[in-house]
């Protein structure tokens, strides 16, 4: 599926309803990571019904333990394209017998991409067709490649407009869940923090409490390259792979379990809940400079 205007060419796969390409026609440059498995085989997966890992890779729903996979199953399922226009595409994933083996709820997951100038609007809609409440987390995971084919992180920085300091937690290496007992400070200089390999030595950085509403990847001299606006998102992740020429900016509505959490899904901190016949809507924007 392709969206295109005078500025950008955007490609989306029905597999996972995943963005697979953002091409800047004016600069003749690919913005989205191409999925080279040497570093990471994906581009911009949609994370649902869980972001990250659950503790012991299980989730308790109404007293029953279900197995989970990291980042959920939506990214590995085929969506149906239900709207296809030059500037808009919408995809739908419905619950089925296979999804119910690991997530017993009925759901309708709609992913919509809209191209407006040099901005890509991404919207998620989760509709609950049941009478009972459903619970989930959902997130984005776009990887932005550097302008140079083998670009180095040290040549780029992150800019957080109007921010002076951010706080984050890290992932427990044994369980893959959040270490909430230790919080780190990220001091910014004029809203800027330099990228480096050292930054990701302990995996992703997790920012809670709605701290990040806008972030830009900039060249070392401060020139904007690509940005993201994600208002009203409670959680945000920043991640990369050692020596990889990309960085992931990840807006999340909910995140991985806290290390040691073994309660019901309804008790999980930050869980989204949609009552019977209700709808959840959340969206963010990718902006090419």
Automatic annotation (TrEMBL):
<protein>
    <submittedName>
        <fullName>Aldose 1-epimerase family protein</fullName>
    </submittedName>
</protein>
<dbReference type="InterPro" id="IPR008183">
    <property type="entry name" value="Aldose_1/G6P_1-epimerase"/>
</dbReference>
<dbReference type="Pfam" id="PF01263">
    <property type="entry name" value="Aldose_epim"/>
</dbReference>
<dbReference type="InterPro" id="IPR037481">
    <property type="entry name" value="LacX"/>
</dbReference>
